[in-house]
Amino acid sequence: MWQALREELHPKDFELVSVGLDTLGAEGCRPFIEAAKPTHPSLIDTHHVLASTFGVINIPSSVWIDEAGMIVRPAEAAPAPPGDRQGPSMDLPAELPQRFAEMFGEAMKIESDPEAYHAALRDWVEKGADSPFALSPEEVIERSRPRSADSALGHAHFELATALEQLGDHAAAIGHFRQAHALVPDSWTFRRQAWSLEPGGDSPLARFWQGPREENPEAWPYEGDWLSDVRKEGAANYSEPWKP
Amino acid sequence: MILNERTLDPARFEAETGWALKPEGACKGDVCIPLPDAVREKMDAVEIARAMGLPVVTDERHGLISIGPESIGGRALTSAEAPELTLPDLDGNPFRLSSLKGQKIVVFAWAPY
């Protein structure tokens, strides 16, 4: 678990800051944070400022920052420590609907290299700037996500969508989420966030449904959904491969 | 950032976008975008954003203005200097990332969906 890793590395002047990205704010994140009981700062990012300021496009992902406040690795996929189950833990219902079974099947195909990532993290915590995994400022900027004028505009639409959602104007929010999806096509978080705000049944997994309901598929307001998009893009391409 | 009015609060603008309004223009790290005096004097958020090349999207019905991030460098980061980031914890208490200076930090993004 990240929590155990944090306890181990904390005496070496290391701190973990976890940030929950959710338009529903603290209420969306609360059950998971209360179950994890983190001893490190655990923050709520209602408007996904991590997307606009750091270029986060997927979760889980991380940004490494050194003692002087310089980013040494920009946003990149951050697998859970080796041996851990990936993703937030929760109790699964005994009988899963077919869609969930198919989603878990796809999720199993998502590739990551926890060993390489976590060996690099430990190396950096140990050696600091002498670690080959600490990148120069130029490399950090170069490796951060491409940002076109269209992409920047998409971020503005996304933030407006979250603000409208919070005001309870779901219909208006959908329009701006759709714009954000079209303008920032590489962001999984922008899509998953919007999909997770649609009705997903009444199980504890409702927010993971993220797709049309069998009883009323034409009511689905988005171009894609989790299962279709992962299949279209290929589960193996869900996260960019980790680059030393 | 989301605004409910067009008048810009420079402190909030800097806290949320990382752009500080200085005599030489709007600055982040080593990068400064010059601002015409006429724009600067009015402190109109939309005009300042447009002069900086930041995207603006509005919702008339709710009176909301959304100012998006810069794209001048073609990358999400214009500087490797970590932006000042202040986010609330579960109880709503603001936490400043810069309060951890002197330690190595991993900012870990997750989501409950």
The two chains with the largest interface, and their residue counts, are:
A-B, 90 and 55 residues
DSSP strand count of chain B: 9
What characteristic shape of chain A results from the CA principal axes?
A: globular
Through-space gap between termini of chain A = 22 Å
Q: Give the ordered list of helices and strands of chain A.
A: HEHEHEEHHHHHHHH
**Low-confidence runs of chain B:** none
Overall geometry of chain B:
globular
Low-confidence runs of at least 5 consecutive residues of chain A? none
Q: What helical percentage do the residues of chain A reach? A: 40-55%
Strand line-up of the largest beta sheet of chain B: 1-6-5
How does this structure look, described?
The complex is a heterodimer of chains A (244) and B (113). Chain A is mainly α and 244 residues long. Chain A has two domains: 2-100 and 112-143, no CATH class; 149-237, no CATH class. Chain A has eleven helices and four strands, in the order αβαβαββαααααααα. By secondary structure, chain B is of the alpha+beta class. Chain B has three helices and nine strands, in the order βαβββααβββββ. In chain B, strands 1-6-5 form a three-stranded antiparallel beta sheet, with helices on one face. Chain B has a three-stranded antiparallel beta sheet with strand order 2-3-4. A two-stranded antiparallel ribbon of chain B has the order 7-8. In chain B, a hairpin with a 5-residue loop joins strand 7 (86-88) and strand 8. The longest helix of chain B has 8 residues, at 10-17. The interface between A and B is large, with 90 and 55 residues.
